[in-house]
Amino acid sequence: MKNWYSLLSLLSLLLWAGLSTSYGQCSGKLDLIYPTTTGTATLTVNNGNGSATTTTCPTTANGGAVLLSFNGDSDSNILVEAITTVNGVQQTTTVQSYSNVPAYTVNSITVTPSTTTTYRVTATTTACQQTKTTVASISVTPSLRLSATNNVTTICSGTSTVLTATGGVAVPPATQAVYTFSGPGITTQSNTTGTLTVTPTVTSTYTVTTNTASCGTATQQITLVVPTLTVTPAAPGICAGSPTTLTAASNLTGGTYTWTIPATGTTVGTGAAITVSPTATTTYRVTYSGTTCTNAQTRDVTVTVTSTPTLAVTPTSATTCGTGSTVLTASSNITGGYLHLVAGYGPERHHWRYGYGFSIRYNHLYCDVGSVRPDANQASHYNGTYTPNDHADCSQP
């Protein structure tokens, strides 16, 4: 019996050792390192929720950037989110996500809050006997804050918004803080109200500088995003039945694209790109769902179907000597095709003084535009640039 007890004790010890090796690093501990006005600090959370607050110093040198670093004591999936209030409503957006991060691996992100923003780091263990979730949150307040009306930073072209700066303190003998604003479309100006009305027509970054209590001179920036929607090619030309790909692009993310033919209301596709093969000239419309700005929500593109394709080349003739060169440029009213550049010898092909002739042919999948033949004297071709032979002598007849 005593031997049985000894054996059981040994087995228990071995099992405990194995579990310690596998699960000993599964306390759910998460460290979040963040900056302060004097250095850095660490928020440590053990299998639960923890939070802290900090003030940062935005400057011209760092552009308001804030470095956050984090690591856990177990293999984990990690999600970093930013929490702000826009139009009075709390919004949560994903900043970064990581899968299967090894224990004690330090990851870092750089964020640029222009006003108070909470960053939430959630770590969920992946290699523990019991899954544990740990949340560390840091509320970052720049010493100098700059916000737009209702914290809305995406606005339609030509729409006005009021920028408001806070956090400044007076520099004696002055009794009020002075804020200096600069940015595209405005002259540098200073005031004590900390406000400025701007009306951007393109995405623009504005800067404010003032004196702050905790950081001295501070500089903060805010970027106002003006939505845009483009389609390429802008004016495609094809032969009847030939395919062409239309590609839409928005400077916003998270929206969806829908393609229609406005003349009939027919939906012809979704996604950023579609391939169409009209037999007659057709206008297509793409609609992007991510904005309410009319001029950035829809875009029309007309695919022109032509029955008379053209091909031109310039110059139509050229003579070069020695090491000179001539560049031949071909153009067509058909897009998406490809060029054939062919050098052909004349009747006296063994006599260099008769030179070469060049035929430029342009093809499309369903459309042969044809060929033109400019004259190039004493030339050989290389990547579209036609350079004479080294022994060329233009004094010869």
Could you characterize what this model shows?
This protein has 397 residues and is mainly β. Helix content is 7%, strand content 51%. The chain has two helices and 34 strands. The protein has a five-stranded mixed beta sheet with strand order 3-9-8-5-6, with no helix packed on it. A hairpin with a 7-residue loop joins strand 8 (117-125) and strand 9. The longest helix is centred in the N-terminal third of the chain and has 22 residues, at 2-23. The radius of gyration is 34 Å and the shape is extended.
Give the SSE layout.
Layout: H1 2-23, E1 29-35, E2 40-46, E3 49-56, E4 66-72, E5 76-86, E6 89-101, E7 107-111, E8 117-125, E9 133-142, E10 145-147, E11 161-166, E12 179-182, E13 189-191, E14 195-198, E15 204-212, E16 216-224, E17 229-232, E18 237-238, E19 244-250, E20 257-261, E21 266-270, E22 273-276, E23 282-288, H2 294-297, E24 298-305, E25 311-314, E26 317-319, E27 326-327, E28 329-332, E29 338-345, E30 356-364, E31 367-372, E32 375-377, E33 380-382, E34 385-387
Parallel strand pairs: 3-9, 18-24, 26-32
Antiparallel strand pairs: 1-2, 1-4, 4-7, 5-6, 5-8, 8-9, 10-11, 11-14, 12-13, 12-15, 15-16, 17-19, 19-22, 20-21, 20-23, 23-24, 25-28, 27-34, 29-30, 30-31, 30-32, 33-34
Q: What's this, in brief?
A:
The protein is built from two helices and 34 strands.
